[in-house]
């Protein structure tokens, strides 16, 4: 039984695990991310791998990290929350731990984990996953393989255009879907709703000490679950745009399964309901033709670790 | 040297050719399409194949047709301009001509031809093609293979959303990109421009006998090439939206090459110029990262025949 | 007691009435409109006035007609459904009937009637009316007077922009609110809905003999009242845009009252409900400041006749 | 010759002047605004009036201030940059200076000044002015009178909807025109352009020390005037939306003259050119009908003082 290590490098934590071929995590460890210190972050990754490799006979290491990774899966071209620029992460870690290493985008590894062991494990060919956290990431599997793109930068699903001349995106363009369907958008919609209609947002405002500017994503989820109408409407708004984005994926790639993952998905039917309605409406013109089933992600936080480990096994 | 037959089934013509492994058409023939008679259309296809097979030793037949084709490439589920509904075209033709047959969507076969022998022949892995005729079709090649989708209906690129609540599409939804970037849209923009600013559209209106409602696509192309500003602006308008759609393809799939084909492309730089500007602007946030080169299609009308024949060879 | 005649010139009927200062119609008559014969249409108007004037001592005549009327209220510059172009209607009728005549836009006279005798009769200063028929007309009263504009062409409320790059309007521009909030839009939304989701539109399709293309406005109203969800959604869609247009009127002119009139309003709360929700939501940022009350028109078909007569009295 | 005082209360300065019936400023004074101290701000206004009244025989005082003023022109309901809430400013100042006082919105007084003495002085009936500073204010004159609205809050032209689901406005709604056509939008467009295409924004970035986030409005104006293409494009973008907003004013109110004022207008043809093109294009469907002339404001910073004084004279 081949064991591999998966490492999920986040902006605040580096989490590693030993994963078996069934996707089971046999051991795990985690460290804080010294995000502003490039060299220390590398060494924390090496520490995590070294610790896990000491107790398990592993054959390879997979690292998942937010950012643009090159097509060879060796260099982090740019990372949004760590100070990496053209960082040759694969070779550094490989030399230090004396194991083969691959580096992969975090949304890609999560999608791969869901394809192999999670919400799309019954699919044998294709799935597309939207990972909706603060921003929106994506992962695409076609023909049983992750689509990495000619330059390693496919599946940037958050930067499809949703609204021409729409809200300014962090990327500099107006109207990317990330500005309408992400956790960031959820909070923006909820704050606007609470300012406009405070009488209908009493539950949400109570959590924020009465100040709409202090509303956070977890508050919107909690208030929505407790019945707060402004919070529920904020979920309906992002679900509307998610459904449109998912429907575009069907028009373009016609996958077997669509998966919705990321922290925002914890809201369950509060998000899935409106998303599904919008998705079905946007595809109504397909008539009675089959379209991809839409499912919530199942692996939660461990998806990154499991997906990275599995990709390392298959390198 | 294996020879195969490619048949391009259009709404007005059925064109067939014998194609060699270098993509050369060794012989060809064509018939009118009896589009409203399902049985006769089948028989015309059989006639075309039989005629060509009589003079060349062919091993297989590929048929390209507008419409939704099932994942097994055997049945036309729905065709927009022929009265086929769940038509088992592969088995009928195969039995009649005693050769293996595959059926494929017309935009897919054209894209495949450009990938193998045309504008993207230097690409070894991935390309995406927008075929801009009256409507918009698409073809996607990834990993050196045509992406057909889980249900055979991938690459319906004309039905990505461009404008929320936008112009009514023939599919029933508001705002599909086909309503902004197709030949149909070109004519609509040109007619509206000529009605609004007749003094700037004298060249175009002269071609239409003075009546904006009689403006056709070829008139817009001719007038634009002769310097008519309203016609040139109509090309700029569809180019703007095409650039946005192409940029979305980069965000989603990061291909090696993008190809723009179909009848509208005959306008050359009148269309390619604005398309390229819009494409570059929409991707400006990628900074210095490489993105797909954008090229015009090279094979023109023979793409369908050549692509269908090549897919039959590789079946 | 001064009596005047009001004449409502429509595309199919010319209806005239003798109206007293309380807005009561004391006598009325109607003729078919020979819409394609300019001279005959003039004479039908003269006939209607002559008949009414024979039995009542009237002092002036007001004529309401669709189209652009000049600032002097004498000439029809352009009419959409009658072949008038720069038609000196006032002087022709006045010479024939030997009475003072004014000509006014049909939506303006209807708005004036509602201001004086209908839904806005309690307002002493300002009201704005959207007349939603096949298209959208408007009327604006400020300072107790009809706003006619510097060139006689104010209150073309149907041609405010609703959706940039939106649906093509008959006027040649993309995205006018008339394309989203008129009776024409209602039918378009309903047909699209019935095509997309026939199972939810069985009531509506039954009225149209099963063919979505044969759906008419009265069918949508009837089906919506009987509970058909696709028809109700079509009303919700136009109500959404009407609410936005009405809210813009508050931002621009802050009137005492807003009135919604025209044939589509017969649907009652099916239209008023969604309109009011959208209106309130669009103005939520005004907080607790007062905004104009939104009311349905009260005078129905007689508004044109009554308003024209009253404007003639006040000429 | 009646003299009156006009006071322009801004967020940083209180400027007062003695104005004669020809709109000439005979004397002026200014103080800093203690914006966070409501009582002190009142007293600064009183000081300014007292100083001016000591040397000139004035008969009334007009005060222009940003914010919502009640219909009686006595109370500031809400001010965006001074801590006034339901502030009875008229009565306080009137009691202190023993003169009649009126309070009016700052964009209204500026529009009135342009109507009487500035860019629209040749108009005898109607004009509409967009004041484009950081935000967008408006003023409407119809029938020779300022349109104040039923509740004193007309002409909030910055909060007409421009883009459905567009950029979040400070008012809480998505897509107000202020988010696309104001000085704030100019800076946002310029920053985004400089981030996306730094090679084309070298002139602009040089002014900002190389950091796009430090770009300010005056920098964009200076760079645009020096030929910086990204800065010029930012002006073209806001001009596009201004033209659409101005065209909507023609559709709604058909005024004699449209005036564009506010600090952004100092860019001259860099802004007026694109604005005029967009305005003309949006109204092209009116064909050969006359539409309002579009002119830049002429009075600059003194418009507020002059307009307030003139309204006080006419109270």
UniProtKB/TrEMBL annotation, chains A, B, C, D:
PROSITE patterns: ROK. Pfam families: ROK (PF00480). The keyword Kinase applies. Its EC number is 2.7.1.2. GO terms for biological process: glycolytic process. Keywords: ATP-binding, Kinase, Nucleotide-binding, Transferase. GO terms for molecular function: ATP binding; glucokinase activity. It is an enzyme of class 2 (transferase). Belongs to the ROK (NagC/XylR) family. This is Glucokinase. It comes from Micromonospora pattaloongensis.
